[in-house]
Amino acid sequence: MDATVKVLEAVASRFDLNLAMTSALMGGAAIDATGEPLPAATLDQCRASDAVLLACIGGYKWDDLPRATRPETGLLALRKQLGLFANLRPAKSFAQLEGASSLKDEVVNGVDLMVVRELTGGVYFGTPKGIDTDPSTGARVGYSNMVYHDYEVQRIARVAMDIAMKRGKAVVSVDKANVLEVSQLWREEVIKVAADYPEVDLSHMYVDNAAMQLVRWPKQFDVLVTGNLFGDVLSDCASMLVGSLGMLPSASLGDGSGPGVFEPVHGSAPDIAGQDKANPVACVLSAAMMLRYALAETDAADAVEAAVEAVLNAGWRTGDIMSDGKTLVGCKRMGELLVEAV
Amino acid sequence: MDATVKVLEAVASRFDLNLAMTSALMGGAAIDATGEPLPAATLDQCRASDAVLLACIGGYKWDDLPRATRPETGLLALRKQLGLFANLRPAKSFAQLEGASSLKDEVVNGVDLMVVRELTGGVYFGTPKGIDTDPSTGARVGYSNMVYHDYEVQRIARVAMDIAMKRGKAVVSVDKANVLEVSQLWREEVIKVAADYPEVDLSHMYVDNAAMQLVRWPKQFDVLVTGNLFGDVLSDCASMLVGSLGMLPSASLGDGSGPGVFEPVHGSAPDIAGQDKANPVACVLSAAMMLRYALAETDAADAVEAAVEAVLNAGWRTGDIMSDGKTLVGCKRMGELLVEAV
Ligand SMILES: CC(C)[C@H](C(=O)O)[C@@H](O)C(=O)O
Ligand SMILES: CC(C)[C@H](C(=O)O)[C@@H](O)C(=O)O
């Protein structure tokens, strides 16, 4: 985040943007300071802003806390409270990173897909949920209901269709309609919405097959639209096409009445925390998405993305994307290089 | 299945096994003949057998039937009725198929992992489930409850631990315990069972990360144990490590009081049905698992697996695993070659 703020300052100065940035605590840092993963003051501050740029929120230290005070609970609450039902996770291969993926070059070269993940519904938020213990036998049962309302499916389907219209006009909706009632509703509602987009080629794929197809031949995809849990899994799977989670930004958007949240797809990587090893690019590219989608500063967004390309072209690499003949740098230095490129 | 039955006949004659094989209708074929995807007569016949070898069950023709009479419903009923809670899906790379995977050779060479998937619980069978329509507004909601009882988790965890003891003694349990209550119960119960297996190295991974790690560096895995839905997705993902679903067998086992079901991981591939293009190896290797696990005919199982190796070594390939310099054959010819090799 430090690196990203500096990149934003640089781009603001270059394009004469009046970017007022404030910071607020969330996740582990907020738990340490206030006992809560999403303090009310933080939520208020987010609501009072045009956009929220989010760093990573967890770590070993907070892993054994009860569910209500875990960092992840704060993240889910932020998404829900801000009504961020649409999570956009682009996966675009970088020509400069040829060789970085575990997949063959011919499989990933030129991949350019967008996972549109529903973010405030499904099994993440459905009720009933809980763990019950039978008082007489001690037997336990855990349950989390996967629920979708028609309007939830419709609005995320519209987001996917609108995005597809600006891209390759092809949407694959991913579900498990051969087994799950909730997926049957999902599929029926997506089909209804698609009627308003005659130019978009809509097809359906079961989630098991989609995971496989993403690995087998990802270039078949333009836009994927899916539920919260399936999107969580498929977007992580898709990240491997690019070579590293360290390159992947995301945007979480609502109906436009409040701020969106922009964050890297990766987690806090507690195993390398504080070692100056992290790749700042995912966070920097999330800031570019923020400039583009939330602030409508297209030139500034383009400049940030061009800076990433330039730094990669010049051969600079963090450890996660390092390869023969390139120059290894830490997080801080990578950030400085990006600032210089802007 | 035709090819597999011939291989079984050959191996029975070589090892003087008294294999009594009968056949019964299920899925699409059963729907056409009786209107039901799993006729009672078929279930009775399965129950009266020592093992069930299952071919694929669906196709375009039956895709639009109501849920109760779809082919998949018959498959789920067979698993549930026979109490087949443990689905074993090995993914082992074949040296002969070097180059067949979309992943780099150094990533997949030597992969040998086992996905142990819970098969009769979770969101596939949980209640409540359904689609409700509000009579006044017409608004609809779909829901499928992901449910696990402690004993369901314990017994599948034991299966995974027992298998790990015969392999690399490492189990990764996959869940989404940072979000889902049902996963929290899952993790707690797996940890309890692991106490009885001090030699097994147990770790936990979130499902999104597991999907990514399977693609990033699959050799880190020995045994994965997970719930029904996560196992469905991860095992399809893992299949890509081997290069083709056409190579992947599976076993579905219960508590030993009734027959197990052995079936290829792949579906019926209606797009190539009847064209003599399918790879019979997954079904043949499922028969080998049947010989090994259900009939305790280890030598016969070894012979079938050796036949597959021999045919691959000799350069014979179906279309899904074809590469330069190899000889392309159809399903029928591949079956004959396997029979000859046995
Ligand atoms: C941290 C976790 C709650 C979160 C999720 O599952 O949504 C993360 O995996 C993500 O994808 O943003
Ligand atoms: C056909 C379908 C019901 C089935 C499942 O989801 O279990 C299949 O995908 C499988 O993995 O065996």
UniProtKB/TrEMBL annotation, chains A, B:
PROSITE patterns: IDH_IMDH
Biological processes annotated in GO: L-leucine biosynthetic process
Pathway: Amino-acid biosynthesis; L-leucine biosynthesis; L-leucine from 3-methyl-2-oxobutanoate: step 3/4
UniProt KW Amino-acid biosynthesis keyword: yes
GO CC annotations, alphabetized: cytosol
Top EC group: oxidoreductase
Segments traversing the membrane: none
Catalyzed reactions: (2R,3S)-3-isopropylmalate + NAD(+) = 4-methyl-2-oxopentanoate + CO2 + NADH
Similarity remark: Belongs to the isocitrate and isopropylmalate dehydrogenases family.
Quaternary structure note: Homodimer.
Function, in words: Catalyzes the oxidation of 3-carboxy-2-hydroxy-4-methylpentanoate (3-isopropylmalate) to 3-carboxy-4-methyl-2-oxopentanoate. The product decarboxylates to 4-methyl-2 oxopentanoate.
Name the UniProt record assigns to this protein: 3-isopropylmalate dehydrogenase
